[in-house]
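Practice problem. Given the sequence and the SMILES for pyridoxal-5'-phosphate, write out the predicted structure.
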Amino acid sequence: MISGVLERYKDFLPVNSNTPLISIGEGDTPLVKSSHLGNKIGCRSLFFKLEGCNPTGSFKDRGMVVAVAKAIEKGFDSIACASTGNTSASAAAYGAHCGLRTTLIVPKGNVARGKLAQAVAYGAHIAMVDGSFDDALEIVQELCDKHSIELVNSINPNRIEGQKTAAFEIIDDLGDAPDALFIPVGNAGNITAYWKGFKEFFDIGRSSILPVLNGYQALGAAPIVNGAPVADPKTVASAIRIGNPASWQSAVRARDESNGVIAAVSDEEILSAYRLVAEYEGIFCEPASAASIAGLLKQVEDGADYSEKIIVCVLTGNGLKDPDVANEIVPASLGEYKAELGSVEQALTKS
Ligand SMILES: *Cc1c(COP(=O)(O)O)cnc(C)c1O
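Answer key:
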């Protein structure tokens, strides 16, 4: 039997006797020790937190389950959000599971194919708008103000509450907090949530240290790094293609209080890390997720010494979400051959 994050961490979540402890199996994701990459770069204790193993394939499920449970508790029968993908997929899944009507406002041409396919399959009501994510967010806020619909975007504080459970799990798995955590940054809710989670467990003695948080934005979508919003954010990593993060200030606080950094990695660095973790670890993550690994590789290149440290890279979503990026990888060996052993053997020994 699955329990889910509401049941497992209810003492730390906004749960009362009227909150339904719904779950479709979110949380309790694997913390996998690196088999090759860690040795290659001199980090002996490198772990990957596989958030792509959540029910809809991204960490968004942790926050969504709390937001939807609270919506039901408040008596809503309808939820809505604006999203470039994973939030939509997650809202649609929990909406379907709980018999709620789910409305998604999606910026046209900005959504990875796998994510849209999920929202459609879960039966959500989808409106594509000819505008940016920020335009979509404005519309959905007005929609929820006007009608009796619960907004489940990341400005809903229950999302952050649910997402902090990933930090709890890391501490429960390792027996303490890691020395450093690497994480992609888009709307900056997740880095905010991890810091909240690490601090809460530290404060009650469940961990003896607080980790250094290192957040990575994409170079073409790096408002926090630049110190100014980006009007037209551009990156291959659609999940972090955000020009004006909702949780900007709290991400800066997480960075400063943890003595970490929020820095940028290029699309080339992201795609290179995306391929490395698939090829060397057997872990296929979203391009956005690979920003965490790209950040670690960059720090090591710049001389950071993590040889004696325990490091966790958060891999936020599953690689199958974005088949178009995956299909651009040049295959190691692939061709068409006659359907006979001889010609295939010949082709394989050549490569
Ligand atoms: C949402 C998302 C991010 C960015 O997280 P924020 O909380 O917006 O910073 C990164 N990767 C994936 C796969 C996501 O779905």
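Check your answer against the key. Residues 58, 60, 86, 184-190, 239-240, 286, 288-289, 316-317 surround pyridoxal-5'-phosphate (CB under 6 Å).
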